[in-house]
Amino acid sequence: MSPFEAPIILSIFLPHQGCSNRCIFCNQKAIAHEIPSPQKICQSIQSFLLSLPVKGTAREIQVAFYGGSFTKMETETQIAYLNVTRPFLLRSEIHSIRISTRPDGLNETVLSLLKEYGVKTIEVGAQSMINEVLSLCQRNHTKEDTLSAVSRLRQWGFEVGVHLMMGLLGDTPEGFLHSLDQIISLRPDFVRLHPTLVLRGSPLEAIWLQGNYLPLSLEETIHCLKKAVVRLERASIPIARIGLQPSLELKEHLLAGPYHPALHQLIDSALFFDMAQTLLKDFPDETRVTFFCHPKDLSNLIGYRRENISKLKRQFHLGEVWVKEREELKRGSLLLQTSNEEVKIDRTSLDL
Known about the structure:
The protein is α/β, with parallel strands linked by helices. The chain folds into two domains: 8-261, TIM Barrel (Alpha-Beta Barrel), CATH 3.20.20; 268-349, hypothetical protein PF0899 fold (2-Layer Sandwich). It has twelve helices and 13 strands. It has helices at 38-51, 75-90, 108-116, 131-136, 143-156, 173-186, 203-209, 218-234, 248-253, 263-280, 298-302, 307-316; strands spanning 8-13, 61-66, 96-101, 119-127, 159-166, 190-195, 198-199, 239-242, 254-256, 288-293, 320-325, 333-337, 342-346. β5 (159-166), α6 (173-186) and β6 (190-195) form a beta-alpha-beta unit. The longest helix has 18 residues, at 263-280.
């Protein structure tokens, strides 16, 4: 698993700002209700800094402008927001800025402005690398825009993140994985993966109500995202997040789709089951086994309500399954101890 350590981020949401059109899956009011003024943002940064440990932290501190497309706003508006952060940057109270935007909003003039104002990280909302899917979702950009944007950001020395969605209108799990492979070839610094949800007030709501869109099930989503996680780990590309952050607003707007507040954990747990299953297939006569994993992986190995252990016992007719910690094991690896030997597997070696 990646040693990626995310910075401490204060997220500022600017819903629909800079958006020239409405993507069919989007209702950012499900995440944030109002657009904060620069003055309000200044107060939020001050409160955020006061909430940090008195002795400070070794982790990077960032202010992030999410929602909408930051670089598609009027230049004066961008500068007004960036100016709020400048005094905090000059005093080294925050270390850098991150923004999210569309792949077609990153020309040379924009990138020069962002560099000047301390922007370090740019998250690109690619969503898909299939032009037909992008068109159906009314994204109004193409996969070529994403290819160009990531290349340009690399040339300018920005840290690059890419957002991908699975279960989009007109897409398939295989299409999503094809998009992912193209993103992996671009070598971003990290990715975010988001299953498509039907949100009240989004254009997708009407399509879903008409029976013209069927969201993926949670089971289908986990099955596909297991493959995505393994591919990204093989490429040593960190995953910043899987799925939307839980919130009261999201709960109020969610109508359908594979939402779970701990989706990443469900995927990790499913991968540990697959690893245990792979190891046990070579020892059909064992009735008592012991698994070892890194201490931080223990709950994922056991599974929710010990589900993984129960399933393994049933499938392999095991009398006892013991689970123990072993600090020296790498995260994402599993060691099986039988009556005669020990064997180990890493999840990047799974055949998914």
